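Checked the freezer inventory, then went back to the computational side. Two predictions to log before the end of the day. The first one is the construct we discussed on Monday; recording sequence and tokens without edits.
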Amino acid sequence: MTENLVSSVPVPRASDGDWEWRPSLQSRVLGGALRLTMRPLIHRAPSHPVPIRVARRALDRAAALLPTDRRVRVERVRDPHLRTGHVMRAEWIIPESADDSGAVLYLHGGGYILCSPQTHRPLTSRVALDTGLPVLAPHYRLAPEHPFPAALEDALAAYQWLLDRGHQKIVIMGDSAGGHLAAGLAGEITRTGLPEPVGIVLYSPWVDLLCELSVPHDKQVRDSFISPFAARRVGKLVAGLEIDPRLHLLTADWTALPPVLIQVGGDEVLRPEAEELARLLTAAGGRVDLQIWPGQIHVFQLLNRLLPDADEAMRQTATFITQALTTPDTQPDQGLTVVA
């Protein structure tokens, strides 16, 4: 994965010219604490509708207690879509002095079964503030009540909502399962002939719902947070009775996408999936910047107010988005940048 390296995102560099990022003390302590507490809980978590709904409500109530940055305005969007037959619901995050040159579509993670735009407001607000762009975070339908492709249909409706309002320069973002959804949406946009996004950002993407790469890797890293065995159980709920071929990103027929930034923790179990997706997209003629952050947990960017590592990752995300917006019509050179 080190052939045809092309640099596109400025990164911190040590005096010897090689990029080096040492995990902060805060991130090391957090990773150890999660390995002893959250991982055993997630590993044994039941994958039944009732406990999932309980966990969903608990997360939403906890998120409601967190203050929203006063420098952004949160508007509720409720727009009926005749094409899909249901209502598109979302949060519209608008920063002070919003820039109308583009917009960000953010698809939250949570295994396709948990979380909401409210739980991920620390990410969407930060993106809006760093870039000056409005961010649309849809309430896409969740499994097991709504198996795939319900989430993809809702993501596509949200993308169309942005296009209908004149936003021609759109960056698609997603974390974890939202990263899977973002990549799938990019492929669906290409297949349906819609105007393409100018850039794609994936945080710790859950690329393979069958976890064929992450299960063996788990023995090497012992991820502090994610259990691939629990993720595999959840993946079956997402897929439903009929396996939609659009779920299988690793066997998809990719065409060249706009520039892609992938950030993944060096010690997390989903790292091999992120690396394989980067390889496939590069082989298809795309340009991918793969940043492997040493010692970081799954979607560490959520803690950008607490971890110096997450703060720096968000800064680099903003740089990538700014560059994607300012040079959207230039065909990027094919290549893969690996930063580890």
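The second is the one RB wanted added to the comparison set:
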Amino acid sequence: MSNAVAPLTGPAPGARPARRPAPLLWLRDGPDEVQSLAAGLDLVRQVAREDASEAWLCMIGNGTAHYLSTYAGGDLLAELYAGGNEVYGVVAPAGRVRTSEDTSEDTSAVVDGCWRFGSGADRAAFMAMGCEPVAGRRTTVVLERARLRVEHVWQGPGLLATGSHTLRADGVRVRPEAVLDMSAVPAGRPWGIYADAQLFLANMPGVAIGLAERLLEVLGAGLAPGSAWFAAYAEAHTRVVLARRGLTGLLQSLDGLARAGRLGPFAPALRAEYHAVLSAAYHVCLDAVVALAEACDSRDAQLRGWLSEARVDALTMRPHAAMRPSGTLLTAVPAPQGARG
């Protein structure tokens, strides 16, 4: 089927592009173009067309900036993002905050914990780490990355450049302002700020969408209608377009509510619908990546290497717990051993 492959343009498939500048982030008084969920999705999607690992970090970095902008004080935000610092977070409540017994320093709490999949660990200046509720209130702590140690190195199978290592804190002291109460949205928040914790996930499907779109662009429909390859390509193209448009429409409606000051915490029905749309877009596009990679039988070694990498990245992303569907969207192809969960 090598004659079905369109000529390649731009960076060679499989070639790791030069490290991109730190992505635009949603911060208080930040640039207008990233103060929306739909814009964040597009940003991640465009990065994924060049590099899935970089897009994953863009997604984590932007999601972290969204919720820090909601709950962190202005002085802390200025410190975190000074000088182009990269800041990433782990929302899983795997840490524990306890009262410090040492009053000799300006700290009132000590943090212990072990967080899996600390994406961005190799690049971060600070990490925002989820902790068990304190007095029933959802809590996150912001720690200097240097004060967290790597317990297990992320070795695969895919997205290796994300540095998604297991991170541990053992008795790390934190200042009071770095312990964030995330149980209620503060009054006077800027428009577009996340009013519901699940909005952190809004641009996660952008990684899958962008990766699928890049494969569709590089491979091309090629053969005439009626061929096996054309049918595989056409089905993947249709599914990816529908997934992207459906998710974008939902996020645009939420952006409209936020601009009107009407976006509050989700009612249960809206939360279920929101997660279903995100999960469907995510898995439909990852399935398209796997289908395209397996249907293409080009003899071009460089192309085959790139398709193999894309397939492994897709299978690595597929079982992520945050995008686990409530129905039966996960289909026959198993994830490789060691995939993120």
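For RB: The mean pLDDT is 83. The first strand starts at residue 87 and ends at 99. Let me know if you want it refolded.
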